């Protein structure tokens, strides 16, 4: 039976585990391998690891790091960062990773999605959309960004998401730049708009600060992935670093409550 997925997202910067706020000011919070070990013990549904240096610096993936992560990880692992060819994606899958994510490369070369799907299967191809509110007095809506939200692209975010699905992506991750690290909840309305147009698995990332926020996005969007970074690495009002994840019983309660609310809403 399909059920919602609760997914920690780890950001790697200069070899360390970091957390950002609106994609800025990375704060070191620990060692990625140690974090993976803890999430193993806590039986996380999946894990997303994004190397935020690779694409921004135009370098290929750190295959040695990926191999170490995959060897340690006992849950489905999605890796993103620096992937620009189907051959690289195939190599990453060969290291024991279940999914390969691309962002800037999909914008620059949309045919890469189809090439990756042919090489590793659609179920292993993830496209990340870094979505940010447009700024300016007369600007409304959202824009698609890349390179740690430093570069903007003049494409319709919904049309692009649909095009990625048609190209062969098996999952879309909507990464909400403005909500990153804020811990005040997901952009539910934006999530619902994407849910209405996509027919493949979807994950929402950016903004979760409590288990209630996870329940809210599932209650509004149904069987999706609810991903978070700060929620699973910080604890308490002073944001002490503590790797955490809901216990299995609590996770079941979150999912059950959310699906009950979804049903009540029709």
TrEMBL record:
Principal EC category: lyase
Keywords from the UniProt entry: Amino-acid biosynthesis, Histidine biosynthesis, Lyase
Family annotation (InterPro entries): Aldolase_TIM (IPR013785), His_biosynth (IPR006062), HisF (IPR004651), IGPS_HisA/HisF (IPR050064), RibuloseP-bd_barrel (IPR011060)
EC number: 4.3.2.10
Pathway: Amino-acid biosynthesis; L-histidine biosynthesis; L-histidine from 5-phospho-alpha-D-ribose 1-diphosphate: step 5/9
Record flagged with keyword Transmembrane: no
Biological process annotations from GO: L-histidine biosynthetic process
Domain of life: Bacteria
Catalytic activity: 5-[(5-phospho-1-deoxy-D-ribulos-1-ylimino)methylamino]-1-(5-phospho-beta-D-ribosyl)imidazole-4-carboxamide + L-glutamine = D-erythro-1-(imidazol-4-yl)glycerol 3-phosphate + 5-amino-1-(5-phospho-beta-D-ribosyl)imidazole-4-carboxamide + L-glutamate + H(+)
One family name in Pfam for this protein: His_biosynth
GO molecular function, one term: imidazoleglycerol-phosphate synthase activity
Free-text function comment from the UniProt entry: IGPS catalyzes the conversion of PRFAR and glutamine to IGP, AICAR and glutamate. The HisF subunit catalyzes the cyclization activity that produces IGP and AICAR from PRFAR using the ammonia provided by the HisH subunit.
Subunit organization: Heterodimer of HisH and HisF.
Annotated family: Belongs to the HisA/HisF family.
The protein's name in its UniProt record: Imidazole glycerol phosphate synthase subunit HisF
Species in which this protein is naturally found: Sphingorhabdus lutea
């Amino acid at each position: 039976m399909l059920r919602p997925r609760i997914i920690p997202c780890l950001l790697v910067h200069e070899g360390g585990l970091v957390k950002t706020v609106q994609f800025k000011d990375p704060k070191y919070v620990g060692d990625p391998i140690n974090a993976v070990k803890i999430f193993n013990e806590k039986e996380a549904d999946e894990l997303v690891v994004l190397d935020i240096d690779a694409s921004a610096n135009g370098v290929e993936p750190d295959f040695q790091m990926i191999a170490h992560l995959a060897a340690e990880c006992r849950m489905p692992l999605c890796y993103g960062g620096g992937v620009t060819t189907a051959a690289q994606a195939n190599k990453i899958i060969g290291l024991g990773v279940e999914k390969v994510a691309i962002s800037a490369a999909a914008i620059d070369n949309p045919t890469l999605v189809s090439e990756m799907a042919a090489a590793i299967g659609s179920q292993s191809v993830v496209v990340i959309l870094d979505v940010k509110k447009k700024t300016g007095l007369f600007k409304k809506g959202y824009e698609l960004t890349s390179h740690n939200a430093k570069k903007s692209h003049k494409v319709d975010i919904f049309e692009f998401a649909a095009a990625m699905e048609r190209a062969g992506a098996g999952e879309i991750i909507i990464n909400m730049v403005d909500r990153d690290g804020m811990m005040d909840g997901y952009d539910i309305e934006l999530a619902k708009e994407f849910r209405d147009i996509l027919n493949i698995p979807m994950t929402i990332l950016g903004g979760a600060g409590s288990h209630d926020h996870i329940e809210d996005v599932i209650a509004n969007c149904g069987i999706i992935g609810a991903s978070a970074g700060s929620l699973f690495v910080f604890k308490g009002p002073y944001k002490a670093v503590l790797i955490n994840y809901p216990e299995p019983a609590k996770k079941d309660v979150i999912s059950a409550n959310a699906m009950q609310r979804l049903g009540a809403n029709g």
